[in-house]
């Protein structure tokens, strides 16, 4: 057997960081260090995202027949987007070609190949004659003729977007001539951050806020400026830094000034500031005794605050409002309509050209689950349909893509087809709240594309959701996109380097929703990791398989992400969906599962869609398998179009999903040496973690429905773990048996833990396996509140040692309890075992963290258990 002792803290200082450390990794790491010291790749921490401007490989550089010799700016002030565009082009060409170009005024331009930057009017007044009548606001014209480049915007922002588009082309080795106009699909392309004034971020998984700390705006806004640069490169033109669950004191004089500083930093990048406001502010901040939207004193209060805001931020984009939702105050308190509430603000910002993003996420969180026809999915249409036509023209209703809440699969929200006289925006979630919280990787654009390309068949005519959002179906001037991003101070921005593909994809789709999700992923890979074909192929595969894989091991057939909706929305807890007022019901019984949303027998939700779509969802035969449980309540043995029963599909999908997840980390490991060390290690660590946690998901969901329905798995896998030794069967000293909650998140429903919590425990077993080489996986629980310590010994020789410190290493807290969030595992690869070897594990609790073990799996190569 291998017996050298591996201590995680030693590894921190080494190049190789990961959950699983084979002894061989030491050798491999040594190799890598030598490799990197040869200058193969510079250290990178992700801060530049896709804007790295890395030198091109020599073979690609040969394609650049001639390169520009100077940059000419036609019109700019020091802090204008055009000036930023010029500096960005300078930086890009320096990085990519190693050429340092001067930035010149037109009068100083000599003969040569120039990158000319200016607005259309400046271009036609001072440089040439360009006829591009189809150039829309924020749009750009790009002409590349060998080394001569013209970048012309309808406005200054457009010039900056054109500059980034040009840089993206050459950074990807595309030196071909081109001449085209690119206009955004919709005017609103915003991001929402859910940052709190105290510096925490609601549903943020990458460290504290870059905007706020201790009740106010941070002093150093460098990260905000870096973020604005990333956003501008995608064509994002608005940002709301403050949580939709808004703190009224965002509107204090001090904070208005702080917001002004944020706006000042983002303005050169063309990113407008928007503000999230709390409906009750006149009362809670202003000291009035009411926040009734029709009360003159309330109106005056808002007008005054709005005036103060615009005084400090003259180009403020407007407000976002979450009203009467999840405990937030709103107009319904005073029997006023949601339109009364929205219009109050619309009037206040109108004189300044502002808009109101009014969220449609309004529902009753105390719904009665015993009522068969009650349905949260109906809420948005129920609340908003009759208000159509009552909103002022600078109100945009911001609608989440699905009727519930960013689930792994939902149909498109029917509200998009129900308020033709109202401008709408689609809210998408870049932060992976229900999709693994950046500890799992899910590339989301393929899901967004399904939503955007969905044809609502309004009036029986083609009416894709993207055309509705772009204002074309109902003739709206306003419309667009809001992406909930929640970046943090982590240099990777989102916690997982690969998750940045979601921000990239979001921005690029908001500019042009017709683009292909895989093309966008590959653009992002080239810009983020370079040109190696194996890198491209590997990340493309992982990325394109990631959403279906995650869906497979979390929630199938439209049942939603079967996570713990009463706690942290992360690990599995299918029972938490039902029997409470939140309305994310599955209606699972011992015989049936799924929401009956038909008109004939259920909640009537299918009838909220235009007739052709309504008919499709009303009938089980025409409802696609992947939404069958969203729309229909069926027996577990209902046959799908695939030929499988619902329950067997659940089992198979979970086993397939978890098995496929096991392939991601090894595929990534093949990229060792092709990606800089830090990003390589950090991604590897998370992919390995995901592999372990996908098994937690698989087992919890399969066991739950197996127990509930009593229907066996045709393949005989569920509940059987031939390679595992349950911790409760070890001989124990200091450890005692415990159940976990939910029970199915522990193997055999039982774990062991140290009691008292600050104690030490020892668990010993004899390995009754044929002698050979095995991967030893140890299931344990990592709760927050301390860093428990574990050491494993084989025949008294130290084998492996680790800490329960995932909260540090994954950058977000999971749970204080033993459950599906805290359940995880480590794998020690390549251990030589002889029949009769003795395995001993010592756990030492720390702080509030108990040491808790679930099982040990002794796995022959290729076996997943
Ligand atoms: C989800 C999320 C909340 C958030 C809410 C919203 O429910 O869990 O944290 O506040 O959406 O979008 O307003």
From TrEMBL:
Domain of life per record: Eukaryota
EC code: 3.2.1.139
Gene3D superfamilies reported in the protein's UniProt record: Alpha-glucuronidase, C-terminal domain, Chitobiase/beta-hexosaminidase domain 2-like, Glycosidases
An annotated GO cellular component: extracellular region
Location of the Glycosyl hydrolase family 67 C-terminal domain: 495-717
Cell compartment(s), UniProt: Secreted
Active site positions, chain numbering: 326 (proton donor), 405 (proton acceptor), 433 (proton acceptor)
Signal peptide as annotated in the record: none
Domain Glycosyl hydrolase family 67 catalytic, residue spans: 176-493
Domain Alpha glucuronidase N-terminal per the UniProt entry, residue ranges: 49-166
UniProt GO MF annotations: alpha-glucuronidase activity
Biological role: Alpha-glucuronidase involved in the hydrolysis of xylan, a major structural heterogeneous polysaccharide found in plant biomass representing the second most abundant polysaccharide in the biosphere, after cellulose. Releases 4-O-methylglucuronic acid from xylan.
The family this protein is said to belong to: Belongs to the glycosyl hydrolase 67 family.
Protein's name according to its UniProt entry: Alpha-glucuronidase
Organism: Echria macrotheca
Organism lineage string: Eukaryota, Fungi, Dikarya, Ascomycota, Pezizomycotina
Gene label: aguA
